[in-house]
Write a structure and sequence with these properties.
83% helix; mainly alpha; 15 helices
Length: 351
């Protein structure tokens, strides 16, 4: 709000200098609103008082008087006598033009006594000398011609030629001094021409400034467009880069997951191999801890025992199946062995 207050305040001054009262009123309304949010009551009242300037340019005299009087009352209410006296100044000349000389005298008395802008000799401070021709027209209205002439000449010496010469022309008309009327008519006409030329020059300068502003604005728009295009390109390539990074991350994550699954499978196979190796190692250890010869001997003994059992079973089976036949008996190997031994045909005949 502080920043906006300063911006709108400066805009109103620029519009006032360019004689654009409607734009000045628009800027001042925003200025007043931001002053209300950021400053005290006194500054707020003076901000509202600044509307006098654009309404004067619009020649809305009733609004000028109303704003000045309301500002006077409000400042008086909060105890700012000096400020309240100063805001009465814009009412003096309208009162004179309307013939309301009592009101003009009342405003002049307060303004000169309480504004703090006058020295002991009645001279107003530098930069505010336009008041001299206002006071001159008041003195002319109350028929104080010598005093009026004095104030008009002070206005001329302060640079207000057009207003001063117009005032002197009125003074000498009242005196019926035709030579002076003719002289000051020419002076007033020359001053008006100078004023018009100055206004024309100012208008040309303002148009030039506006042209330069428009050109600068166009250049700014071109730069803004370039910036927009650059921003779009930057955004596009940034998005492309982000998309590429995301794709790379996705492929990397996929590869990582695949490798993780492979590692899990390898880990399972490794655990299985380790478990099998542990079992085999345990079996080997158990086998190494045993007496293999005794195991073999035991197995052989067991085999011989089983062989004998099988033989007995077979013999028993043959006995059960065969009849008591001598021929069958003689043909058996054991009978043949006994026959050979009895015939002494063996190395050891003893049965």
């Amino acid at each position: 709000y502080y920043l906006l207050k300063n911006i709108y305040g400066q805009m109103s001054l620029i519009f006032d200098d360019q004689n654009l009262p409607q734009d000045e009123i628009w800027a001042l309304e925003h200025y007043i609103e931001n002053v209300r949010k950021t400053s005290g009551e006194s500054e707020y009242l003076f901000a509202k008082y600044r509307l006098v300037s654009p309404y004067s340019l619009l020649n809305e005299i009733d609004s000028v008087i109303a704003i000045s009087l309301s500002s006077y009352e409000a400042l008086k209410r909060i105890g700012d006598s000096q400020g309240s006296a100063r805001v009465l100044c814009p009412t003096i000349y309208p009162y004179i033009e309307r013939g309301e000389l009592d009101k003009a005298k009342w405003a002049i008395g307060i303004f000169e006594k309480e504004s703090g802008w006058f020295d002991t000799h009645g001279n107003i401070e530098r930069g505010r000398e336009s008041y001299y021709y206002v006071k001159g027209f008041y003195e002319l209205a109350v028929n104080h011609l010598d005093s009026a002439e004095l104030f008009f000449r002070k206005a001329i010496s302060s640079g207000y030629l057009s207003e001063g010469y117009r005032g002197l022309l009125s003074v000498y008309r009242s005196r019926n001094d035709m030579d002076s009327v003719y002289h000051f008519s020419l002076a007033y006409e020359a001053a008006q021409d100078t004023l018009h030329n100055q206004m024309r020059t100012n208008a040309i300068l303002q148009m030039s400034a506006l042209y330069n502003y428009n050109r600068s604005q166009k250049e700014a728009e071109q730069e803004r467009e370039k910036s927009r295009v650059l921003k779009m390109r930057t955004t596009f390539f940034s998005g492309l880069l982000v998309l590429s990074v995301l794709l790379l991350l996705w492929f990397y994550q996929r590869y990582k997951n695949k490798k993780k699954q492979e590692i899990l499978k390898l880990s399972a196979r490794l655990e299985s191999a380790i478990s099998a190796r542990s079992e085999i190692s345990a079996e080997l250890q158990m086998l190494k801890s045993k007496d293999y010869e005794s195991v073999i001997a035991a197995k052989e003994a067991k085999e011989a025992e089983l062989t004998e059992t099988i033989r007995r079973l077979q013999q028993k089976n043959e006995k059960d199946d065969q009849t008591d036949c001598t021929e069958a008996f003689v043909n058996r190997s054991i009978a043949q062995l006994f026959i050979k031994k009895s015939n002494l045909k063996t190395e050891r005949p003893n049965p």
